[in-house]
Design goal:
The complex is a heterotrimer of chains A (291), B (593) and C (244). Chain A contains 11 helices and 2 strands; from the N terminus they run ααααββααααααα. With 291 residues, chain A is mainly alpha-helical. Chain A has a two-stranded antiparallel ribbon with strand order 1-2. In chain A, helix 6 (163-173) packs across helix 7 (175-181). Helices cover 56% and strands 11% of the residues of chain B. Chain B is built from 24 helices and 10 strands. In chain B, the strands form 2 sheets. In chain B, strands 6-7-8-3-9-10 form a 6-stranded mixed sheet, with helices on both faces. Chain B has 593 residues and is an alpha/beta fold. In chain B, helix 18 crosses helix 19. In chain C, strand 7, helix 6 (170-185) and strand 8 (189-194) form a beta-alpha-beta unit. Chain C is an alpha/beta fold. The radius of gyration of chain C is 18 Å and the shape is globular. Chain C has 10 helices and 10 strands. Classes of the chains: A mainly alpha (291), B alpha/beta (593), C alpha/beta (244). Chains in contact: A-B, A-C, B-C. Chains A and B meet through helix 4, helix 9 and helix 11 of A and helix 5, helix 11 and helix 14 of B.
């Protein structure tokens, strides 16, 4: 029993990371109809920026965090201008290929700059964790869960209770109508890309102390985030979060009870199964999406 | 419009710009290349480069089929390549099988994997296909790395066997080049086969392809399977060439390398594939310093993909052919007998019987319990103001929407639940309001696609391409565009494109022709010509169901009119009397309520 | 004074010329109706005015200055609000939020805009009970009211209304047209596109009839309605006569 609780805790922790990345994914998709294959690389680059600032340059942790987020905002903006904007009127295939190219570029330039050795990033807290009854609560996992709750709450508040959030929603629901009302559509899309890059970055920074910081972490996280959005129902924000948590739990239990080296395979297996039997995900297509 | 007598030329296929001489030339060149490779003194380094180029090209040919011809994405080509390679590796080393047997096993295994993958996800397409292929790629890599008992894990498989005939590296290379030449020839000819045309049609316009009688799903699966087969074949050749395989040679990065090679050279043609592969193998060799920093050359690949997609989406070879196309004169057309329209069924008096047809979208009743019958011969019009449900009705009739309730009979068969291409096989033809032609093809090819629909009784059995071409030319003659048959679609005006679409439908020899707003976007001269064309079609006995807003055309051409408003039928009868009915007039002009 | 002057307007979609040289004027304070059957070029004309498509040739003068080729965001800031065909209420936002976003052409905090939106319900009392309902749950008539209210939030001098009666039951159409009369009474100029000629002319000060992208008729409502040519423009006959 205590093992089950432990696995549950870990599963939720890692699931929260997937949920954050999936969130960034879904936001870009709803605003631009683009599936961003480089979403995982946003997490990876942010983790490396943290390593650069906190480990190599030995800057204070909080300062490194801010610099990394600033870097991610810049990267999101550049991504919008260089990868999405020139292709915004073309069909989806060139855009998919373009984001794949960007993902390869980001992963390999980081490799070229840093070398293939995985890096180590310390957690935020000094104490590694504490025992609560039969379960050991790792402090970094607690941080991940706490930050995710805060971010999701922030996102809910931002989109549901601010004017800018409403304008962003309007842009993703009907771009042309939004422009007729005077909403600056290009600016809204830019904000969406920057926001997605930043939360992707936060996810990467949160998970970095738990895994190694490696070049491959980006693509593996991205595919799991994608699996999460499929499980929850593609394009659905709440679905992405729930799907992420579900996937984290499935994966953790699978690794413990079935096999460790194939841990990453669970996400893919779940993905293929859902696509084969229930492509609309758990929540199906929300009617709000139908114009 | 006047029809010039077409210029008589020797009876040959006019649709190929270059014919027999090119094919002979190809084989001569290939033979020369093979000879050179087997005789010349090449050092080990050059040998390796050529070996890699030859085997990679086969895999990239696969991408030119699935992505270039059919427009579907495949990001797992390295996995299929790896399946073929490991089949040869493990088969010869662990199981002592002969090279040839292993090559076949590997190719078939890749083919089956590709077919299975395609069958499960091609209905979803797009992003889903991309994600599933990446997932499949990752699973294959995981298995290669971790199933150590079976695959030797990260250590890989050394000392792979070669066929007895080609034990030396040089002789094996000659074999690989010969294989490449033969495979290349097959891929090059694929685009002119029936399947190849179907793939191109699906890529250009899926909806039009299905309405022209093509089973879109099966075509996509076939393209995907062929791509996997070529991947596996290339991998098998690769394993024999390098005699060592390991998991890191077949990772997702390699799939991206294949994709970049295909895009750079030009995805649509195997020539482009060869160019792209050659360049991307040679360039890093010349710029060897790029490989000294890990990640640098792949990072450049990443940027290259983005730049190619933005600025040169047709690749190098695509750029060249687009440029040359301006100078090449289309081949002249031969004379053909005039078009015969013999609608298949001569049984029932009613060609189309619609009973109780409804289509609801959630709470909206777009079509509400509509009945009408179209009698054989002549022109029947379906009209109604904007939002009346006539376009929805047309889409239900052609199978693009599923009816909520009701029945549709075409002649004697109930077509209510048939998919669009099956309805075409039963004799339904249709055109689209916003013209759906296959933009990469010539007018003739477009019409040939229509002619080759299954069940077209006017195409002689075993007549081959010549029979199809003859029928297509006759259809184009009928609409007045015969002499321009070999010109690409993009050179035709909007009005002419509409005529080509009608010719495509006629070439299929339908029993009932559905015309969706054929007058839309035409000027008054073109509309008069359209009216004449419709009368000539009707004179041959083909029944037409016409939807249009242009009342002049409708009242002039149609004998019988059915009127819809708010999804319901409000009038049905002889044209002139229907148009005078007060509720029809008020449906259009509005009423004081 | 002439608020909007269009001269020899030509608009193309790729190769198709949808509008071939249309000339018309809209006087300030009037309701002008553009009539014609489907495909006549009415919606295309509105789209050229609001900036969704750039004209190929011709003059588009608003208050004396050219607005041809301006972006939609720029046009709405100048005081021209376009309520497009098909209503296009944002499905995932509430009625109140939809209306508030109508003021996106000017500055304003959520609080102030919320209060202005609430005032809008005085003109549209039928949708007040649905303030917090999401867009996709509304009926066609309710969506039309939301769309018009949203258009009015931009405080336009010129309101472009595209086929407000499309797909609506006759009773609802009457309600919508009563609102159009009220809008005009309050001083906003309206350019109304309608397929329903009778309703369109019932509320207009002036009318134009388009046919196949060209201007066929122009005149006061009574003149137009009595003219046989209007029937021909909708139900055919005009071109047949020309052929003989």
């Amino acid at each position: 029993m205590s093992l089950v609780l432990q696995l549950l805790f870990t599963g939720i922790g890692i699931g929260a990371v997937y949920a954050l990345v999936a969130l960034g994914f879904v936001l870009i998709f709803r605003a631009t109809n683009v599936v961003n294959f480089a979403q995982g690389e946003f997490s990876m680059v942010a983790a490396f920026l943290m390593v650069l600032c906190a480990v190599d340059l030995e800057l204070p942790y909080w300062l490194s965090f801010l610099i990394a987020l600033g870097g991610m905002a810049f990267l999101g903006a550049m991504f919008n201008l260089g990868v999405y904007y020139p292709l915004r009127h073309r069909s989806f295939l060139p855009v998919i290929i373009s984001t794949i190219g960007a993902s390869i570029f980001l992963a390999n330039s980081t490799l070229a700059l840093y070398g293939p050795q995985p890096q180590v990033l310390q957690g935020w807290f000094e104490t590694p964790g504490f025992q609560v009854g039969p379960v050991y609560l790792d402090s970094q996992y607690l941080l991940i869960i706490a930050v995710t709750i805060v971010l999701v709450a922030f996102q809910y508040w931002f989109f549901e209770h601010t004017l800018l959030g409403k304008k962003l929603q309007a842009t993703s629901q009907d771009k042309e109508m939004a422009s007729l009302l005077g909403i600056p559509v290009a600016r809204m899309i830019m904000i969406t890309f920057i926001y997605s890059a930043v939360i992707g970055g936060i996810a990467g920074i949160l998970v970095a102390p738990v895994l190694f910081v490696s070049i491959q972490m980006g693509s593996s996280i991205a595919l799991k985030a994608f699996a999460a959005t499929i499980i929850g129902g593609f394009g659905d924000v709440a679905g992405a979060i729930i799907g992420g948590l579900a996937l984290g739990i499935i994966e953790t239990f699978g690794a413990a009870y079935i096999s460790v080296p194939y841990k990453d395979g669970f996400a893919f297996l779940v993905l293929v199964l859902f696509l084969a039997f229930r492509p609309q995900g758990i929540f199906g297509e929300r009617v709000a999406e139908k114009a | 419009m006047s029809v010039e007598a077409p210029i008589r030329t020797a009876r040959r296929s006019p649709s190929r710009f270059a014919i027999a001489p090119a094919h002979i030339g190809y084989f001569v060149l290939s033979a020369v290349a093979v000879l050179l490779v087997s005789r010349a003194s090449l050092d080990g380094y050059i040998l390796n480069i050529l070996m890699q180029a030859a085997t990679y090209s086969v895999a990239v040919f696969g991408l030119s089929v699935v992505l270039g011809l059919c427009g579907q994405i495949n990001l797992a080509q390295a996995a299929f390549f790896g399946i073929g390679a490991y089949a040869v590796g493990l088969g010869t080393v662990d199981y002592g099988l002969s090279y040839w047997v292993c090559l076949v096993i590997g190719t078939v295994a890749a083919l089956l994997a590709g077919a299975f993958l395609g069958m499960t996800t091609l209905r979803l397409g797009g992003h889903y296909l991309a994600m599933v292929t990446i997932s499949f790629q990752q699973i294959v890599t995981l298995i290669m790395t971790n199933a150590v008992g079976f695959t030797h894990g990260p250590d890989g498989v050394p000392s792979i066997g070669r066929p007895a005939l080609f034990q030396t590296s040089q002789s094996y290379l000659a074999f690989a080049v010969a294989a490449l030449a033969i495979i290349g020839y097959c891929v090059w000819n694929l685009k002119d086969t029936r399947l190849g045309r179907a793939m191109r049609a699906v890529r250009d316009n899926e909806l039009a392809a299905s309405v022209a009688g093509i089973n879109v799903y099966r075509t996509k699966v076939a393209a995907f399977a062929i791509s996997a087969l070529l991947g596996g074949l290339g991998g098998g050749l690769f394993a024999g060439g390098f005699t060592y395989v390991s998991p890191d040679q077949f990772s997702f990065a390699e799939s991206i390398v294949f994709l970049t090679m295909a895009l750079l050279g030009g995805v649509a043609s195997p020539i482009g594939s060869a160019i792209g592969t050659g360049l991307l193998i040679l360039i890093p060799e010349w710029l060897r310093f790029l490989k000294s920093i890990p990640g640098l050359y792949l990072a450049i690949y990443g940027v290259a993909v983005i730049l190619i997609i933005i600025f040169m989406p047709d690749g190098i070879w695509g750029f060249v052919t687009n440029f040359l196309r301006r100078f090449i004169r289309p081949v002249q057309v031969a004379a053909v007998p005039p078009l015969v329209l013999a609608p298949d069924r001569t049984g029932t008096e009613t060609v189309l019987d619609v009973k109780g047809l409804s289509k609801h979208f959630g709470g909206l009743k777009a079509v509400d319990n509509v009945d009408f019958a179209v009698r054989r011969g002549g022109i029947h019009a379906l009209i109604g103001p904007n939002g009346s449900g006539k376009t929805t009705t047309l889409n239900v009739l052609s199978g693009l929407y599923k009816a909520t309730s009701g029945h549709v009979r075409l002649g004697e068969s109930d077509i209510t639940n048939l998919s669009p291409h099956r309805r075409t096989w039963d004799g339904l033809g249709r055109t689209f309001q916003n013209i759906r032609l296959f933009r990469s093809m010539t007018a003739l090819e477009n019409v040939v696609v229509g002619a080759e629909r299954r069940g077209n009784s006017l195409i002689a059995e075993g007549g081959g391409y010549a029979a199809l071409e003859e029928r297509a030319l006759a259809a184009l003659e009928f609409v007045g565009l015969g002499p321009r048959a070999n010109e690409p679609i993009t050179r035709f005006s909007y009005g002419h494109q509409r005529l080509i679409e009608i010719a495509r439908a006629l070439a299929a020899n339908p029993t009932l022709l559905l015309l969706d707003e054929p007058a839309a976007g035409l000027n008054s001269t073109e509309k008069r010509a359209l009216h004449d064309l419709l009368e000539r079609i009707a004179a041959q006995g083909l029944t037409i169901l016409l939807i249009d807003h242009d009342m002049t055309l409708v009242s002039g051409a149609a004998q019988h009119i059915t009127v819809l408003n708010f999804g319901k039928r409000i009038a049905d009868g002889e044209s002139m009397s229907v148009l005078r009915q007060p509720d029809v007039v008020s449906a259009y002009l509005g009423s004081e309520t | 004074m002439t608020l909007l002057a269009i001269k020899d307007l030509i608009v193309r979609y790729g190769e198709i010329e949808a509008v071939h040289g249309v000339t018309l004027d809209v006087e300030e304070g009037q309701v002008v109706t553009l009539l014609g059957s489907n495909g006549a070029g009415k919606s295309t004309t509105l789209r050229a005015i609001s900036g969704l498509i750039a004209p190929a040739a011709g003059e588009l003068l608003y208050d004396g200055k050219s607005i041809a080729g301006h972006s939609p965001e720029a046009v709405v800031r100048l005081g021209i609000s376009h309520v497009p065909e098909g209503r296009r209420v944002f499905p995932g936002l509430s009625v109140r939020e939809n209306i508030m976003l109508g003021a996106s052409n000017r500055r304003g905090g959520a609080g102030a805009l919320g209060r202005e939106a609430d005032k809008m319900f005085e003109l549209f009392p039928d949708i007040r009970p649905f303030r917090d309902a999401l867009g996709w749950t509304l009926s066609g008539g309710q969506q039309q009211m939301v769309a018009v209210a949203r258009g009015l939030m931009a405080k336009p001098r010129l309101l472009l209304l595209d086929e407000p009666s499309l797909g609506l039951a006759p009773v609802i159409v009457q309600a919508v047209f009563r609102i159009i009369s009220e809008i005009r009474r309050r001083g906003t100029t309206v350019l109304l596109v309608e397929q329903n000629a009778r309703m369109g002319l019932s509320v207009a000060d002036y009318g134009y009839v388009l046919e196949s992208g060209r201007l066929a008729l122009g005149g006061k409502p009574d003149e137009l309605w009595g003219n046989e040519a209007i029937r021909a423009a909708y139900l055919g006959g005009g071109q047949v006569a020309a052929r003989i």
